[in-house]
């Protein structure tokens, strides 16, 4: 596969099992096998493109729920908890890059599960990975339908908008490599950040939130500094913050397509710094000015007109998110089907049939999930709390122990002891957040059913009215 001579990323690229680097070509990859240049270039993402893909996998629907989470936790408590989550997930994300360099044959969390727990671990984490991204893809399709409803003033049946979103997700998700998606990631990231900051500025200059009681007197925000809800409400809010950082399962796939995985940490630091800064600014400013009248998603907090404008800007970003979350599970299944086959890297009929079949299958299942399951938003929160947390905390603690336990046990240095304690903390805290967040989501689903009976399957009603 051709690579520009003199490219500093390739010149410093790590050796991988069965891989050969020459002046202009690398011929073999531990994940994708022999690459002759006839097929797609699976190793063509630079460090800046990697940062864009990382940020886009995290900045999406999650950021839009942060102000509502602060309404439950309080602005001070919420910020502290968010920073703690940022530290833990940044370390988890760092472990992804470190583990990949040590084990270049690893492509995803399923491979990690296989190394840690054998075949049952591979099957469990592989199924979890696919199921998680299918539900996130369904959520992305639903968010596109909300945006289309908001922009068009409910121009047609919502079920039609969801089908359109599924078709877009399938078409763009079928782009074969992440390297070809990086420019879309930059565009989508720019669009959604523009929409978010537009709303942030709007709530700061308007007289009062759109949903607050209207009157002639001055508006005084009723924001809280500390948490005041029940345990269930607080843990559900914490789960929202965790979900905002739950792009970790995608990072294995992203680093596997980097030209130089040794630059992964640089990309990670850029990603986590930008993501955390954006989350804190959005969460604090929007909640400070809106108080308990903040909308969720937050794009509806500044009134009908601003909601239309902001969703118009956010729409490309929501499309790119859906594209990525269709692509990731499809690529994983595609690699399983063609593993060890020359069709994996050659544009044969079998290659294209398998690839299009994978992306089409993921898009269709995600569409059915988005359209058919009542109380969908709460169900996505449940899946995020149960599966997203499971793949962003516990495995990374076990990964460090897997690589360092035997050697460190013989030496028992202070650093090793502290790291063992840290890994245990990550595993235990992740398990606690998973259980408590799942419990809170189940309670929310039950409450929603008791209040409204849930939402209808394949509904035509305007789903942007609640935002």
Would you write up a description of this structure?
The protein is mostly helical and 467 residues long. It has a single domain, classed as Hydantoin permease, CATH 1.10.4160.10. Helices cover 69% and strands 1% of the residues. The chain has helices at 8-11, 47-58, 61-64, 66-73, 75-102, 109-152, 158-173, 182-205, 231-244, 248-256, 264-290, 304-337, 349-372, 376-392, 394-411, 414-452; strands at 28-29, 33-34. A two-stranded antiparallel ribbon has the order 1-2. The longest helix has 44 residues, at 109-152. Mean pLDDT is 86; it is low at 1-26. It is a multi-pass membrane protein. Belongs to the amino acid/polyamine transporter 2 family. GO terms for molecular function: L-amino acid transmembrane transporter activity.
